[in-house]
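testing teh design pipeline on a random one, pls ignore if ur not involved
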């Protein structure tokens, strides 16, 4: 068993469970704790000893067994489900911009998904990123199956994106809102994750929204 330290930057909804991810503070490398096969974690899997659960921006110690990369998620580590997680503190918010992504596109192009065959062909070296979006508008709408869905329209490097939001806190903020567009008045950061294959594609998902306050994200 090993123990990894990470800044928690994603605590997203995934099929009733949680998709957790964060950055190792010293190296800037992403870590995605999972069950074998890349499975999502339950709340019991990510529990502190006092019964509470990690929050965004917590600095946590995660017990892991071994690394188990998938072709579309190379950052995966298998958690040791028998050992509690521990909280070391909260990150200084002013440090977060140093971890932001700087490439031209979000996962290689401006679309909201990548074809599975393309991921297999090109090889994915990362499936998580922290970005600084501009002109953010949240859109309450319906999914292809007519279920409530929250999306975010935003610009990154002067390119317009339209991605699904899976951050449960932000989904709850708009749970009873009418289908409409809601501009975000504050600056923020997005943690964006590449999800598992669905109908032949891996979707780009906004796994966390981190607002700015007084010049620092929160």
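output:
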């Amino acid at each position: 068993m090993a123990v990894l330290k990470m800044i928690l930057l994603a605590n997203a909804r995934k099929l009733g469970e949680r998709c957790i991810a964060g950055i190792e503070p010293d190296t800037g490398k992403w870590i995605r704790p999972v069950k074998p096969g890349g499975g999502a974690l339950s709340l019991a899997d990510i529990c502190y000893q006092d019964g509470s659960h990690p929050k965004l921006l917590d600095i946590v110690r995660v017990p892991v067994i071994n690394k188990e990369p998938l072709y579309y998620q190379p950052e995966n580590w298998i958690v040791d489900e028998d050992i509690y997680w521990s909280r070391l503190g909260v990150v200084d918010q002013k440090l977060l911009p140093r971890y932001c992504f700087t490439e031209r596109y979000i996962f290689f192009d401006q679309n909201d998904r990548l074809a599975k065959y393309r991921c297999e062909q090109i090889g994915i070296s990362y499936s998580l990123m922290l970005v600084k979006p501009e002109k953010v508008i949240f859109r309450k709408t319906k999914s292809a199956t007519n279920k409530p869905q929250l999306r975010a329209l935003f610009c990154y490097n002067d390119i317009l994106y339209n991605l699904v939001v899976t951050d449960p806190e932000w989904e709850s903020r708009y749970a009873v809102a009418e289908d409409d567009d809601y501009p975000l008045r504050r600056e923020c950061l997005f943690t964006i994750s590449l999800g598992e294959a669905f109908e032949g594609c891996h979707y780009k998902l906004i796994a966390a929204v981190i607002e700015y306050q007084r010049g620092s994200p929160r």
